[in-house]
Amino acid sequence: MCNCKQKAPSGAPFCFLGRRFSLLWYTLALLGLWASWIPPATASDCPNAKADDHGVVAHIVDGDTLRLVDGRIIRLVGINTPELGRDNKPPQARARQARRFLGKLAPVGSRLGLRFDLQRQDRYQRTLAHLQTAEGHNLQEQILAAGLATTLVVPPNYLNIACYHDAETKARSLGLGIWVLPHYQSRAAESLGSADLGYRIVSGQVSRIGHGKRSLWLEIGPRFALRISRSDLIYFKASQPEALLGKRLTARGWVYRRKGQLRMRLRHPAALESVGLRRP
């Protein structure tokens, strides 16, 4: 027994049952705090433009989707967060944390500004918008800065692409949120197997450029190709994809399997990292 009179934060004796117990108590306390910690919001660097519309939050659906009081489902354009479990599938890592974080930024009952891009609805009839708080802080940027989302550019919507990219890059360099997870680390194209589907960051050297009727193909592995639809080539003019032959690049997007080959569709050069490739 010890006679120490110092108290632990809970009021339990700091020395109760000796030093080993006290060390164990503090370790568990710290683990509990770490598990419940949510990264703080950061000040917005994105342009604080006048909102096109406003709405009041009724429900947080997931890390990048919410519902307004007027019934509109808002998809936060420009980012993608881990998916919550559906159809008896478990949630992806950090999905619940991303949802809590969005709820912290935009509590139920709060009023948000909506800034629209060129396309206002997606194929699911959700409203696409860049959201900002009453103070003018951009929600997408704050989620990216916390390391709880990846940038996602789907043409023709690419408003705020530069500041979103910067916010993600900082979070990635600090190893925040999803960026410490193995799933979000770059993988060599030749190391991927048939089970490595879904969102991936893939690297490889462009060994061949193929021209199809509907697409341009960049082969970066023996069984891996990047597909650029001819309808999207307009966005790659400044980046000159033809000049990527022989260069090593990193691409991000959704990997799928077709005709015995793994493929990834590229919609915009923001999904590419390469020596000499112009960034947005």
Report a brief summary of the structure:
The protein is of the alpha+beta class and about 280 residues long. The protein has helices at about 20-35, 95-105, 140-145, 160-175, and strands spanning about 55-60, 65-70, 75, 80, 110-115, 125-130, 150, 185-190, 200-205, 210, 215-220, 225-230, 250-260, 260-265, 270-275. A hairpin with a 4-residue loop joins strand 2 (about 65-70) and strand 3 (about 75).
Radius of gyration: 23 Å
Low-confidence regions: 1-44
CATH topology of the largest domain: OB fold (Dihydrolipoamide Acetyltransferase, E2P)
Helix-strand string: HEEEEHEEHEHEEEEEEEE
List the helices and strands and how they pair.
Blueprint: H1 19-36, E1 53-62, E2 65-68, E3 73-76, E4 79-80, H2 95-105, E5 111-115, E6 127-132, H3 139-145, E7 150-151, H4 161-174, E8 187-188, E9 198-205, E10 208-211, E11 215-221, E12 224-229, E13 248-258, E14 261-265, E15 272-274
Parallel strand pairs: 3-6, 8-9, 12-14
Antiparallel strand pairs: 1-2, 1-5, 2-3, 4-7, 5-6, 9-13, 10-11, 11-12, 13-14, 13-15
Helix pairs in contact: 3-4
Describe the structure.
- By secondary structure, the protein is α+β, with helices and mostly antiparallel strands.
- The chain folds into two domains: 53-180, OB fold (Dihydrolipoamide Acetyltransferase, E2P), CATH 2.40.50.90; 186-274, Beta Barrel (OB fold (Dihydrolipoamide Acetyltransferase, E2P)).
- 18% of the residues lie in helices and 28% in strands.
- It has four helices and 15 strands.
- The protein has helices at residues 19-36, 95-105, 139-145, 161-174; strands at 53-62, 65-68, 73-76, 79-80, 111-115, 127-132, 150-151, 187-188, 198-205, 208-211, 215-221, 224-229, 248-258, 261-265, 272-274.
- The strands form three sheets. Strands 8, 9, 10, 11, 12, 13, 14 and 15 form an eight-stranded mixed β-sheet that branches.
- Strand 10 and strand 11 form a beta hairpin.
- The N and C termini lie far apart (65 Å).
- Mean pLDDT is 85; it is low at 1-44.
